[in-house]
Amino acid sequence: MPFGPDSVVLWAWGPVRVNLTLAGTWVLMVVLVTGSWLVTRRISADVEPSRWQLLLELVVEQMREQVREAGAKDPDPYLAFVGTLFLFIAGASVLGIVPGYTPPTASLSTTAALAATVFLAIPAFAVMARGWREYLRDYVRPTPLMLPFHVVGELSRTLALAVRLFGNIMSGQLIAAIIVSVVPFLFPAVLQGFGLLIGLIQAYVFGMLALVYVLSAVRTHAAERPVEPPHVNNVLDTE
After folding, report:
1. Which are the contacts of 54, defined by CB distance < 8 A and separation ≥ 6?
2. What share of the chain is helix, strand, coil (3-state, %, to 5)?
């Protein structure tokens, strides 16, 4: 039995196939890029900012503040990466309320790709901040016997990010679909709002967890322990 947007093929030509996940990702990318361009195309110090520009600036400033509270003294190096993760996942959840649109985050392949970017970003940020020698030494501290455990920890952390996001998004969609099929005229709007709220929470948690992992790798082994971002634990505990 087909399950998930990956199994829905919209167009095929030989080995090339476009499924619902890929199409949904393209639509989301077009919306984010076009929306950003429309909001920022007339930015000028001499022109009064529009409401959309003020909203975008508010979102960016809130992201910067969250990165700073997570423990980064200078949030700018991490803002683009964490902000992109958040906007992609949040944008998918917002578009999910549009009839006929299936968010790409409902596919395990998409969440695995997002987790893979975090997996690659961790050593990239750490090497830029500390150098590759110092970063690799963490894998053999306090003893070289810890090397396989550190490697397994990195891989399992990436897997947990992918499965966690996929499970939360899919479970919300399935519960909404089941309830709507039973009582189709009473709760659709409420369930759509509930699903949107879940998606936004997952976007925040995914981005902040990615930031915590990056910051913990950037700091030296002798530095203070990484500080957990505020509210993340509370969100996790309520799920």
Report:
1. none
2. 75, 5, 25
Residues 109-128, mean pLDDT to the nearest whole number: 91
Q: What is the pLDDT of residue 186?
A: 56
List, as one string, the DSSP characters of 99-146. Answer: TT---GGGSHHHHHHHHHHHHHHHHHHHHHHH-HHHHHHGGG-S-GGG
CA distances, 213 to each of 203, 207, 226 (Å): 16, 10, 9
CB-based contacts of 160, cutoff 8 Å, min separation 6: none
pLDDT at 199: 82
Task: List the beta bridge partners of residue 16.
Answer: 13
DSSP 1-67: ---SGGG-EEEEETTEEEEHHHHHHHHHHHHHHHHHHHHHTT--TTSPPPHHHHHHHHHHHHHHHHH
- The pLDDT of residue 230 is 43
Cβ atoms of 198 and 106 within 8 Å: the answer is no
| Cβ-based neighbour number of residue 49 at 10 Å | 15
Which residue's structure tokens are 């299936």? 102
pLDDT in tens, 170-188: 776 666 666 666 655 555 6
Determine contact, residues 217/132, Cβ cutoff 8 Å: no
Q: Identify the CA nearest to 206 among candidates 173, 172, 236.
A: 236
Tokens 């990010």 -> residue: 161
Give residue-wise pLDDT tens across range 45-82: 677 777 877 888 888 888 888 888 887 788 888 888 99
Whether this prediction's pTM lies above 0.90 is answered by: no
